[in-house]
Design a protein that fits this description.
- This protein has 270 residues and is an alpha/beta fold.
- It has a single domain (28-269), classed as Metallo-beta-lactamase, Chain A (4-Layer Sandwich), CATH 3.60.15.
- The protein has helices spanning 2-25, 65-69, 88-91, 94-106, 186-191, 218-228, 244-254; strands at residues 28-33, 47-52, 55-61, 80-83, 114-119, 134-139, 145-147, 150-156, 164-169, 175-178, 197-201, 232-236, 258-261, 267-269.
- It has a 7-stranded mixed sheet with strand order 6-5-4-3-2-1-14. Strands 7-8-9-10-11-12-13 form a 7-stranded mixed sheet.
- The structure holds zinc ion (2 copies).
- The site of one zinc ion (ZN) has 6 residues, from helix 3.
Length: 270
């Protein structure tokens, strides 16, 4: 009995020691907004929060995103923003975030400027007003970013305006790709190859395949997941008709991968 008790205590101790270390190291992804085009009632278009070792990074900042984001973090705690392209459903609230940073600096709640990285042809054409507070920088396909211990690389998508997919890799080698908006391309399959989590736009149902260039249907999402051999798929950027459950079912029917979908309560470690 004494021995059994000691063993139990050892494993309890080991579990307590191991668990927080793993949690501290893992990337945490929270899906803040997940609609295409415009936000549904009380929700938001594309916006994803990535946290790792105290760094807080927002990827895309669509319509309705700022209100939702504040359910998870203080805006003053943000370290960087990355924008996949300048369609309004991916950038709309970024302009309000600039005001938020201005006002919070004036109130003394934040001292440093916010780094904002945008994939577009010319950031100087965008209507930002406070370069000392909001440091907007252009990213290209060959850009390499390091934010904290995370490495960022980019892929030029098939879309009606310049748009990128983003790959994030941590020091432990865990990887995450966010597709942005894109049509099916072989180069995107290669970009997403073997990643742990693929957060991928899923704008159309099976029967709509090929209807709109520059977006993905369920059949193409499933094909990318299979051919890239990713571990876990999260669907996002939803249409405002049909059901999200149907999108998931269609991808699951054509793929052997674990398939989830973005929602306000979805928060995973990678
Ligand atoms: Zn979009
Ligand atoms: Zn778009």
């Amino acid at each position: 009995m004494v021995l059994a008790g000691s063993i139990a205590r050892f494993f309890t101790y080991k579990k307590c020691m191991d668990w927080p270390v793993r949690r501290m190291e893992a990337m945490k992804l929270t899906t803040i907004g997940f609609w295409g085009a415009y936000p549904s009632k009380n929700e938001a278009t594309s916006c994803y929060l990535l946290e790792e070792k105290g760094k807080k990074i927002v990827i895309d900042c669509g319509s309705g995103a700022l209100a939702k984001l504040q359910n998870h973090i203080e805006l003053t705690d943000l370290d960087a923003v990355i924008i996949s392209h300048i369609h309004p459903d991916h950038i709309a609230d970024l302009y309000c975030l600039e005001y938020a940073m201005l006002i919070q600096q004036q109130l003394g709640n934040r001292q440093k400027p916010l780094d904002v990285f945008i994939y577009t042809e010319n950031v100087s054409h965008l209507p930002f007003s406070y370069p000392d507070i909001f440091q907007v920088k252009q990213i290209k396909e060959d850009s390499q970013l390091q934010i904290g211990t995370l490495s960022f690389s980019f892929h030029n998508n098939l879309h009606e305006i310049p748009c990128c997919a983003v790959k994030i890799t941590d020091q432990a080698g865990k990887s995450f790709v966010y597709s942005g908006d894109t049509g099916y391309t072989e180069s995107f399959v290669q970009f997403a190859r073997n990643v742990d989590t693929l957060l991928i736009e899923c704008s159309f149902f099976l029967e709509q395949k090929g209807l709109v260039k520059g977006h993905l249907s369920t059949v193409e999402v499933a094909e990318i997941a299979e051919r890239a051999d990713v571990k876990h798929v999260i669907l996002t950027h939803f249409p405002h008709y049909g059901s999200i459950e149907q999108l998931v079912k269609e991808v699951q029917a054509l793929s052997s991968k674990s398939v989830d979908y973005a929602k306000e309560t979805l928060s995973i470690t990678i």
